[in-house]
Amino acid sequence: MNDFDTTHLDGKAQKFANDICKMIAKKKKAQPWGGGCKAFYTPDEFRRKGHQVPSECVLILCYDGGDLRYYCNWMYADRTNTKKFNTLLEKHGLRSENQDTVVDYVYER
Questions:
Q1: Are strands 57-62 and 103-108 parallel, antiparallel or unpaired?
Q2: Residue 76: exposed, middle, or buried by beta-carbon count in 10 A (0-12, 13-18, 19+)?
Q3: What are the pLDDT tens digits along the chain (109 aa)?
Q4: Residue 37 and residue 63: Cα distance in Å, rounded?
Q5: Are 68 and 34 in contact (CB under 8 A)?
Q6: Looking at residue 2, what is its pLDDT?
Q7: What is the pLDDT at residue 66?
Q8: What is the DSSP annotation of the chain?
């Protein structure tokens, strides 16, 4: 399994996910790693796993042990990575909302 697969996404969610993959790959000079966890879920996929997801949500980011944690998780991220992540969200007209220490919901602005 490719932890950072984006082929099941569409629209802004897929464009953003592809760009975050490129950003991480450029920084670490290797492909992003999800720690064995799938990094990107559609809202419907996450609902099928038993989570309540608001209808406005366009993407779910999961980063339990993966490279996304250095951009999303306040316990691991540094200001530089957080700023890059937020700038990328803005570029795509999106915003994220942290749900816990391993999941963010992404919405259109």
A1: antiparallel
A2: middle
A3: 689 999 999 999 999 999 999 999 998 889 898 888 899 999 999 999 999 999 999 999 999 888 999 998 878 888 899 999 999 999 999 999 999 889 999 999 9
A4: 7
A5: yes
A6: 85
A7: 87
A8: --TT--TT--HHHHHHHHHHHHHHHHHHTS----TTS--EE-HHHHHHTT----TTEEEEEE-SSSTTHHHH-TTT--HHHHHHHHHHHHHTTEEEEE-SSSEEEEEE-
Which residue type is seen at 84? K
Placement of tokens 């559609």 in the chain: 42
List the 40-41 sheet strands across, edge first: 40-41, 57-62, 103-108, 94-98
What whole-number distance in Å separates Cα of residue 73 and Cα of residue 63?
A: 8
Q: What is the pTM of this model?
A: 0.92
- Give me the residue spans of the domains in the chain: 11-108
